[in-house]
Amino acid sequence: MIGLEKGYSLINDILPKSQLEVLQNEFEDLKLARGTGGIRNVEKKYSSIAALATSDLIVNLAQKYLIQRPRLVRSILFDKHEKCNWLVT
To answer: How far apart (Å, rounded) are the C-alpha atoms in residues 22 and 24?
Structure first.
């Protein structure tokens, strides 16, 4: 298990361009109702999220930081942008 001195790790270029295109295409026409800010259980509504979250790439990456085999517990898509920003504490 890898230690995280700062509590997090930044990994550049983790997803291949083809995977990013799949996600972009699936969410291209997404319009959230005003005031919702996101979608809960997004993996149940979008197959690309379910596939990504359970992919060998993500599971193996998470396994480096965990003792037990990782599993998807919760997924939330946030519509967070400059004009709709909030602090994360």
So the answer is: 5
pTM of the model: 0.72
The separation between CA 68 and the C-alpha centre of its own chain, rounded to angstroms, equals: 20
Average of per-residue pLDDT across 57-69: 91
The closest alpha carbon to 57, from 28, 18, 27, belongs to 18
Q: Which two tokens stand for residue 79?
A: 């519509």
Distance (Å, rounded) from C-alpha 50 to C-alpha 24? Answer: 15
Q: pLDDT tens-digit profile of 24-56?
A: 998 888 877 776 778 899 999 998 999 999 999
How does the average pLDDT of the chain come out, rounded? Answer: 84
DSSP track, the chain: ----TTS----TT-S-HHHHHHHHHHHTT--PPTTT-EEETHHHH-HHHHHHHTSHHHHHHHHTT-SSPP-----EEE--BTTB-----
